[in-house]
Design brief:
heterotrimer; A mainly beta (101); B alpha/beta (398); C alpha/beta (192); B: 398 residues; alpha/beta; Rossmann fold; seven-stranded mixed sheet; six-stranded mixed sheet; 40% helix; 19% strand; C: 192 residues; Pyruvate-ferredoxin Oxidoreductase, domain 3; 7 helices; 39% helix; globular
């Protein structure tokens, strides 16, 4: 029986873990919720965005999805709130606000 | 069908490798194991095997080559000794914890210093906690037979651990003796094809191995590894049974020689067991009830079985061909005495460290030790527990 | 023949004593015996004294120690008589075979009181005559077979010829030279 990485957590007993920690699929880091590391959150103001795509390669975590030539709202499961996109946006289409509780 | 031949221990291992035809050999030469990759590379050059022979720049790379090949779904072998295995040290642990059943021919040699090329077990005994299965051989025949059994053991689903097949450097590795070889086809059928469910190069389902384990996962993986080593015991015995059906030669976790009614016994490992058997035959001829236990499988350690076998003797001498500098005995002694602890009636136990760096031990030396055991049995006085034999002493015979 | 015949070889690195020891194991094996052939290893240096051993028996011999009380000793280089205690432990009902142009009587005083049989063979002369070069191991092997009688001499000759024909198929003169050396050695071993 092949266990997917997403099915293993810190509650999994040794009997149900993969042998030697083997991982049987690629791209498993996308399963890890790093969004909860944020204390500051970028906010996307679509009306100011020209879709110049300047922010996309600057994002260290590939958290700005792009579809059909247009950027979409942030992938908040992976965005760690570094604020680089907010700093580099030439059109002030991204603001940076305190994470609420 | 068996083929009568005469080979040195190194020739026998190289021949077993040829019959197995592994996918990859990664090796770096070191005395006294050098002949194994040397002979094997001749088979490669002559096209007698399809093996990819990787001539690496160090033993560390030899082991990583083998691990990578094994992870990719291939069968990998290596051969080394002493300082060569020491240079693999970290990788020994990685191979075991990554659960890659690499097979190693270890030709036991003193692990330095002062620098020495001759036999003792300090190299493999130092690696006893690395997570490798360890099989030891008394003769060229046993080295050959153990090597053929290693892959079905290590690759078994319940085990998946690397296996070290040990033989005594020079004493058997370079001694030509009679041997019975198996037919090529029989060996191929016996070891079968290596077909792991998952491997790096499986394109529909690629595998990643060796992840970083945070504390929340590490203990679970170590527990798995410990269970695999426990499982290995039954697998070793079942592979031995199949091997006996093929070859007529029987193997267990250890060999109990003249132990049924033995009053005193030796426990030892490797080629010296053959010398001690001659002592047993001679002393039995004089009506003395002596026996010996030759350990074949040191990892996993046959604790319960050994305790049972030693339960009826009055005194036992455990012979270590390695120091562990515990200041209280060698590694085999620590394990054997621990095995005896659970017995209701325990034999008295002493430890002899012998044969370091190729120091010879003879039939008469073992007779002297049996004599001491009878004395211990008679008086109930153990005397010094941690002893050495074979070294020159002030005031002793030169 | 005794249960186990033990033979100790003394030579110098490079003279082929180890090869002769392994060849003796091979011929004994070919006549159906159990054999051991093993040199004592250390730093390998051309000219340094070396020791090699044979055990030959009808049943498998399990002993894996060196040999301390041999039935026979073979000395491949007579200069070793000064440097090494070659007769140490040698059984009095056994024999020593020495490569020398001297007679056994001339050499006995160098043997530290050994009372058993002494044989000599001029391996240099035989080798140079038969093979044109000095390879002492072939004559010494033949002498060891003759004196120890672990293998029947005729069987030994047939076996060696087959072995040489296999190894030196493209060099018939090597085969002939070696075979001449073997036959001559079997005849010329000189008992004291």
């Amino acid at each position: 029986m092949i266990k997917k990485a997403g099915e293993i957590s810190e509650l999994t007993p040794w009997q149900e873990m993969t042998i030697g920690g083997e991982i049987y699929e690629g791209g498993t880091s996308s399963l890890v919720n790093t969004g909860d590391w944020r204390t500051m959150t970028p906010v996307f103001h679509e009306e100011k965005c020209t879709h110049c795509m300047y922010c996309v390669p600057y994002c260290p975590d590939s958290s700005i999805p792009v579809q059909d030539g247009k950027r979409l709202d942030f992938d908040f499961m992976h965005c760690k709130g570094c604020g680089i996109c907010y700093k580099v946006c030439p059109f002030h289409a991204i603001s940076f606000v305190k994470e609420g509780v | 069908m068996t083929i009568r031949n005469r080979l040195s221990g190194n020739e026998a291992i190289a021949y077993a490798m040829k019959q197995i035809n592994p996918d990859v050999m990664g090796a770096f030469p070191i005395t006294p194991s050098t002949e194994i990759p040397q002979y094997f590379s001749t088979y490669v050059a002559n096209g007698e095997v399809d093996t990819e022979f990787v001539a690496v720049e160090s033993e560390h790379s030899a082991m990583t080559t083998c691990m990578a090949a094994q992870a990719a779904g291939g069968r990998a072998v290596t051969a080394t000794s002493s300082a060569g295995m020491a240079l693999m040290w970290e990788m020994l642990y990685v191979a075991a914890s990554s659960r890659l059943p690499v097979t190693m021919a270890l030709v036991n040699r003193a692990l330095t210093g002062p620098i020495n090329i001759n036999c003792d077990h300090s190299d493999s005994m130092g690696a006893r906690d690395s997570g490798w299965i360890q099989l030891y051989s008394e003769t060229n025949q046993e080295a050959y037979d153990n090597f053929i059994q290693a892959m079905p053991i290590g690759e078994s689903d319940e085990v998946r651990l690397p296996v070290m097949v040990c033989q005594d450097g020079f004493i058997t590795s370079h001694a030509v003796e009679n041997i019975e070889l198996l037919d090529d086809g029989d060996v191929k059928r016996f070891v079968g094809e290596y077909a792991p469910e998952n491997y790096l190069l499986k394109k529909e389902n690629p595998l990643a191995i060796g992840p970083y384990d945070i504390s929340n996962y590490y203990m679970e993986h170590k527990k798995q590894q410990a269970e695999a080593m426990k499982n290995a015991k039954a697998v070793i015995l079942s592979v031995a049974k199949q091997f006996e059906e093929l070859s007529g030669r029987s193997y267990g976790l250890f060999e109990a020689y003249e132990m049924e009614d033995a009053e005193v016994a030796l426990v030892l490992i490797g080629s010296s067991a053959g010398t001690a058997k001659e002592t047993v035959r001679r002393m039995r001829g004089e009506g003395k009830k002596v026996g010996l236990v030759k350990i074949r499988v040191f990892r996993p350690f046959p604790m319960e079985e050994l305790a049972e076998t030693l339960s009826k003797v009055s005194a036992v001498a455990v012979m270590d061909k390695a120091e562990s500098f515990s200041a209280c005995g060698g590694p085999l002694f620590a394990e054997v005495r621990s095995a005896l602890y659970d017995l209701e009636r325990r034999p008295k136990a002493i430890n002899y460290v012998y044969g370091l760096g190729g120091r010879d031990i003879c039939v008469e030396d073992f007779a002297m030790i049996y004599g001491q055991l009878f004395e211990i049995a008679k008086t109930g006085e153990t005397g010094p527990v941690y002893r050495h034999i074979g070294q020159r002493e002030l005031g002793g015979d030169r | 023949m005794k249960d186990v015949v033990e033979i100790r070889w003394h030579g110098r690195g490079g003279q082929g004593a180890k090869t002769a020891c392994l060849l003796l194991a091979e011929v004994a094996f070919n006549s159906g015996m159990y054999v051991q052939g093993f040199p004592e290893y250390g730093p390998e240096r051309m000219g340094a004294p070396i020791t090699a051993y044979n055990r030959i028996s009808r049943e498998r011999c399990s002993v894996h120690s060196n040999i301390y009380s041999p039935n026979f000793v073979v000395v491949v280089d007579e200069t070793l008589l000064k440097a090494v205690d070659v007769t140490n432990g040698l059984k009095e009902d056994g024999a020593i075979i020495i490569n020398s142009e001297k007679t056994p009587e001339e050499l006995r005083p160098l043997l530290r009181g050994y009372q058993g049989k002494v044989y000599t063979i001029d391996a240099r002369k035989i080798s140079e005559e038969a093979m044109g070069r000095y390879f002492p191991n072939t004559p010494m092997l033949a002498a060891a077979v003759k004196v120890s009688n672990v293998v029947d001499s005729d069987h030994f000759i047939r076996d060696m010829e087959a072995s040489f024909r296999h190894k030196f198929a493209s060099k018939p003169h090597v085969i002939d030279g070696n075979m001449r050396a073997i036959r001559q050695s079997l005849e010329e071993v000189c008992a004291g």
